Amino acid sequence: DLTIFYENHQLLFSDSFENTDNWFHEGVGKINQLNGGINLHCFGSSMGDKGCMAFFNYDLPDQISIEYDINVKSHGGMVLNYIAIRGLNGEDLITDKTLEPRTGIMRNYFGLKWGLQSYHLSYSRFGDDGSHTQSSNWRRNPGMILVGHGNDPVMQINREYHIRLTKDKGHLQFFVDGILGHAMIDRDTSEYPIPDIGKFGFRLIGTDVQAEIKNFKVFQIQHNPDVFISKRFKT
């Protein structure tokens, strides 16, 4: 059991989505303001190809919870969240022009050539035939290394879900409507440090997939050292 309760403390960021100014669009598709939220729309693409990317403009610290509501409007794609994405040498994902140019293809964000570190979470995973894969993964970049895996509770379209992600160093949790989907602990510092600070973002991929995002908030949480020293929590 990797579950730890982290209480939300200080509210660090929130977005009422009066416009899309807080979000940086990359790749293909469109981002539009809609009904107190934003609508991300990816079309004419497939797995690994150019996606519709939306990155929150501000760097987030470590020890945070990220909360938002999402309503996926169509089958045939999936949603990714990037956490703590930045350059391996501290470069800002959005503003640093020394980073390799990106077109929105998947390897732009995990390939070593592009020099980025992050964790990313995939969910609402539908195959090209419209069937749900029933799985959800945590991966670490560079390398797209699988560091966590579990069930994917986001299985219905045209239904609003409340997502809560917590990050405490290498301990990450994925909650849907207040219920833990899955969690993971990453302690591997043999090649790169644990991803710490950076941007948060969305990636939509598919032939025609839309998602509405509302009520975006980021809270500070308190570090729990027991997670990393207790024998109860195994990688």
Layout of strands and helices, then pairs:
Blueprint: E1 11-15, E2 23-27, E3 30-34, E4 37-43, E5 52-56, E6 64-72, E7 77-87, H1 107-110, E8 116-123, E9 136-141, E10 145-150, E11 160-168, E12 171-176, E13 179-185, E14 199-206, E15 208-220, H2 226-229
Antiparallel strand pairs: 1-15, 2-5, 3-4, 4-15, 5-14, 6-11, 6-15, 7-8, 7-14, 8-9, 9-10, 11-12, 12-13
Number of helices: 2
Terminal Cα separation, in Å?
Answer: 11 Å
Which percent range describes the beta-strand content?
A: over 45%
Low-confidence parts: none
What is the string of helix and strand elements? EEEEEEEHEEEEEEEEH
Roughly what percent helix?
Answer: under 10%
Q: How many strand units?
A: 15
Structural class, judged by helices and strands? mainly beta
Average pLDDT: 92
Shape assignment: globular
C-alpha Rg, in Å? 17 Å
Q: Strand count, sense and closure of the main sheet? A: 8 strands, antiparallel
Structural summary, described in words:
The chain is mainly beta and 235 residues long. The strands form 2 sheets. Strands 1, 3, 4, 6, 11, 12, 13 and 15 form an 8-stranded antiparallel β-sheet that branches. The chain has a 7-stranded antiparallel β-sheet with strand order 2-5-14-7-8-9-10.
